[in-house]
Amino acid sequence: MNALDVAIERKAYRSREGEHVALDELAFTIPVGEFTCIIGPSGCGKTTLLSLIAGLDRDYKGRITRREEEGGRLGMVFQTPRLMPWLSVRDNVRLALPAREAEDGRAEAILREMQLGAFLDAFPNRLSGGQQRRVALARAFINAPDLLLLDEPFQSLDAPTAQQLRDLLVAMCQRRRPTILFVTHDLREALSLADRVLFLSASPGRVTLDLPLSLPRPRHPDSAAVESVRKRLLETHPDLLRGLLGEAAESVA
Amino acid sequence: MKRLPASRLGDTALRWSSALAVLIVWQSAASAAASPLLPSPATVAVALGRLVIDGRLPVDLGITLARVAVSFALAMAAGAAIGILMGESRAADRLLDLWLVLGLNIPALVIIFLCYLWLGLGEVAAVVAVALNKVPTSAVILREGARAVDRELLQVADVLRLSWERRLRQVYLPQLYPYFMAATRSGLSLIWKIVLVAELVGRSNGVGFQLGVYFAFFDITNILAYTASFIAVVVAAESLAIRPLERRLTQWRT
């Protein structure tokens, strides 16, 4: 059963300079409960894709079908935390709950789980970048989404913090089994997280490779298993990744 | 940490000495002039005391404040609605922009005359006239606010499928609070001034009417006494209502 069925014919932005085609003939499906990473060079339309799937932008040609089971819920983590600066940490997370369930203690529980118990009443500008991202994760997780969309959520964090948050994400996913679409441009991150990796071409983004992964968990981005998959991939598909990752292109060359 | 209270103390001292300087300048000018055209602070204070005790000033002040409150509420509601609409919709902006320019530039006195002529010399006309003077400025300020609203945070509200009521209260309006505060400040000071003109022109009570009477009798002492009471009210409104409200709304910034 598919949680998500994407068949985008065309998504273009019109501006004064003319038309920019962000996505063209992009199609894939995601089965329920799968953790899929989407990886592509910057500007290939990854963020656009997520906002189309989330229904934030309906101006495109094609069709995106989300399996909306009874009360089907969507969780989303953006590139920046996007917390409401005027709401406390607790109220930011409660925002994702129906108003009558806001005080049932779930917000506090999930924040404590994320080691934010000391910051329940703090305003977001008091928190570090990593802590703000944890709040954003908590907000996305709290109503147990069926579909979770993450847009480079751990970008610009130091490596240990990013890894800590990845572990947190995996732990929560294993418990609740949502369908996940995780956008990144970091190949190691994708290989360490996903059941499957979709590679997108440069703009307009199309799927250039659909790679299923069956590495055992937990995997660390720097582990030998991830590294060997990465190496093999770069050897067999040098064109696929050229220009996709500066670092990858270098190591192939 | 130690310098902060000290400098705050210094601020307060500066404020008070500045107020004292006003009194000193006034007193010496009055002594030098020694004329009924410039009564001394003490004379005015005595007159003020008498006006308060015989109850006329509190009544006039109360009537004027009620007019201020009603026209301020009307003007903020209408101005905010128009401004937000214009900030959100380009079509509305194009459509109403000329009206706004007109409204901003019609002299207050003209609006007051027209309201009295069209609506009759009554309370409604007075309040509407004062409100109309304020609507365009609040609309302009709130339009800026609506234009500056962070679309990314509204997307969060979309993803969370917030009800329109929660979206407004927790995501949209908080972004407009600074603009509401700015509109409140500039609005109150504008309305204070215009309401007196409206009372002078077409009402038979309130501070503006009473000032008109004293003016007719060259009664400068009582004019200054009314003015002083008015200033006291403004300062009290600022420090007891507006500033605490602002602190509450922006506490997350600290």
Describe the structure.
- The complex is a heterodimer of chains A (253) and B (254).
- With 253 residues, chain A is of the alpha/beta class.
- Helices cover 33% and strands 26% of the residues of chain A.
- Chain A has a domain of 165 residues: 3-Layer(aba) Sandwich (Rossmann fold).
- Chain A has a 6-stranded mixed beta sheet, with helices on both faces. In chain A, strands 2-1-4 form a 3-stranded antiparallel beta sheet.
- In chain A, helix 5 links the parallel strand 6 and strand 7.
- In chain A, helix 6 crosses helix 7.
- The model of chain B has no long low-confidence stretch (mean pLDDT 91).
- Chain B is an all-alpha fold and 254 residues long.
- In chain B, helix 3 packs across helix 8 and helix 5 packs across helix 8.
- Chain B has a single domain, classed as MetI-like fold.
- The interface between A and B is medium-sized, with 22 and 18 residues.
Q: Topology of this protein?
A:
The complex is a heterodimer of chains A (253) and B (254).
Chain A: E1 2-15, E2 18-31, E3 35-39, H1 46-53, E4 61-66, E5 74-77, H2 89-94, H3 106-113, H4 129-141, E6 147-151, H5 159-176, E7 179-184, H6 187-193, E8 196-200, E9 207-212, H7 224-236, H8 238-241, H9 246-252
Parallel strand pairs in A: 3-7, 3-8, 5-6, 6-7
Antiparallel strand pairs in A: 1-2, 1-4, 8-9
Helix pairs in contact in A: 4-5, 6-7
Chain B: H1 3-33, H2 41-53, H3 56-88, H4 90-105, H5 108-119, H6 123-147, H7 151-159, H8 164-202, H9 207-216, H10 220-249
What is shown here, in short?
The complex is a heterodimer of chains A (253) and B (254). Chain A is an alpha/beta fold and 253 residues long.
